[in-house]
Design goal:
Blueprint lengths: L3 H14 L22 E6 L5 E6 L1 H7 L17 H14 L2 E9 L5 E12 L5 E10 L16 E9 L8 H6 L9 E8 L2 E8 L17
Antiparallel strand pairs: 1-2, 1-5, 3-4, 3-6, 4-5, 7-8
Length: 221
């Protein structure tokens, strides 16, 4: 990771997950990374197989020059490398890995700027990874003064890396499969017995969405 934004978000996610393969979507509290909230995003995946932006920070959209919400994450890699990004996202979903990607963009006058994106898995429904916490920020210590004044295209994936925070686990899929869908600090658990079976019932919980510093659908002017 090159970007301070990526490092900060990874530290938060890693502390949040504890001994688990990945934290849950409902564990995430944007108040803990408010300083970088405008550079963060949430991806979701479903039956379509795409990894779409559910929420995207205002700074990301303004710097790229277009709205991200509803866009497939793989489109940021450009046509030639979209399949690479899709395969990496599938690995993150299946094995609980983390992803770091560098995407090069170009202004109409051929000036270029690179962004680093980090993607961190979240367990959401039925104990599976189908949400992703991420951040996207400019590579380097100084942002170009013209950034945000023109749309940035075309785009190309120039670096991609997958890693496990604790090294390759021997049973990552098993840990995710048996992980409770809510963190116990957010819920009270009781055991219900029925027909020689027992179930864990989680009371309460939170269902808030990231909102502060995030852009609703629209076009960057």
């Amino acid at each position: 990771m090159k970007s301070p934004t990526s490092k900060m978000l990874f530290r938060y996610w890693n502390e949040l997950r504890g001994a688990r393969s990945a934290p849950t979507r409902l564990d995430v509290d944007p108040a803990h990374f408010i300083d970088i909230l405008s550079e963060t995003f949430i991806l979701e995946t479903g039956l379509s197989g795409a990894y779409t932006f559910r929420l995207a920070g205002t700074r990301i959209c303004e710097q790229l020059g277009f709205e991200l919400r509803g866009l497939d994450f793989a489109e940021l890699a450009g046509p030639a490398q979209a399949k690479v990004l899709e395969d990496d996202m599938a690995a993150i979903s299946a094995h609980g890995q983390c992803g770091v990607f560098e995407i090069e963009t170009q202004a109409p006058d051929s000036r270029t700027v690179s962004f680093e994106a980090i993607v961190l898995p979240l367990v959401h429904t039925q104990g599976t990874i189908n949400r992703y916490l991420g951040a996207m920020s400019v590579v380097g210590n100084k942002r170009p003064h013209w950034l945000g004044t023109v749309p940035l295209t075309p785009r190309a994936l120039v670096r991609n890396e997958l890693f496990w925070p604790d090294g390759p686990p021997q049973a990552a899929d098993e840990k995710i499969e048996h992980q409770a869908p809510f963190h116990e600090r957010n819920s009270q658990v009781r055991i219900v017995h029925h027909d020689r079976r027992h179930f864990r019932v989680f009371e309460g919980g939170r269902s808030s969405e990231m909102a502060v510093g995030l852009r609703a659908p629209g076009v960057v002017k």
